[in-house]
Design goal:
Length: 203
């Protein structure tokens, strides 16, 4: 692995800040997963914020459970859950210990390990024109990266799954909207994505 990865890896103090700040600043950062000898990586282009204190759509809203306990840890851990009986979704825990806040990674622009992502998603290599379908949704991200329940609670400051620092996306390049596919706290504009990026799940 490129030693620069470890120099650029986000440190704990990035994640332990305010939920909305972390959510916006995750845009443009690079998610990295070591997959055996292969490296899978991609630029985060779309996220959603969830706050257990005031947000009925958050899994943490009803308090700490066996499923959500990692959300109440300090920032910098992976909260992975299974949804609709079909796919996994991955979240970045944020804030101070006991807060119950996390950011859902909704879409990624693939950078490295695209052939492995293709095999994880479709069982074979896809055409270049179909690359846009690889990771343009939260379930697709986890399938392509091979993220599942075994990655619940992974420390993002560790060596297997982590996020690389990259230049901050400018405010005028970030679109802010309501979140997608929820039935509670629907009016909260806590979805952020990079303007005009083709890998965003829904425009």
């Amino acid at each position: 692995m490129n030693p620069d990865f470890y120099v650029k890896k986000l440190k704990r103090n990035f994640y332990t800040r305010d939920l909305q700040i972390v959510a916006k600043e995750l845009l443009g950062k690079i998610l990295v997963k070591k997959d055996g000898k292969a490296i899978l990586s991609g630029k985060i282009v779309e996220v959603e914020a969830y706050d257990g204190d005031i947000d009925e759509a958050s899994h943490a809203f009803t308090g700490k459970t066996e499923r959500t306990k990692i959300m109440f840890n300090e920032g910098g851990y992976f909260y992975v859950y299974f949804t609709y009986g079909a796919h996994y979704c991955c979240n970045v825990v944020t804030g101070k210990k006991g807060r119950g806040t996390a950011v859902l990674i909704r879409a990624i622009e693939p950078v490295e390990g695209i052939s492995s992502m293709s095999k994880n998603r479709f069982g074979n290599m896809i055409d270049e024109k179909d690359k846009i379908k690889l990771t343009n949704g939260p379930g697709k991200v986890c399938k392509a990266f091979g993220i599942s329940k075994e990655h619940y609670g992974v420390d993002l400051t560790g060596e297997n799954i982590f996020i690389l620092n990259m230049p901050k996306i400018k405010d005028d390049e970030i679109v802010i909207t309501k979140r997608v596919g929820i039935k509670k706290s629907m009016d909260l504009a806590w979805r952020y994505y990079i303007k005009n990026n083709p890998y965003v799940s829904k425009k």
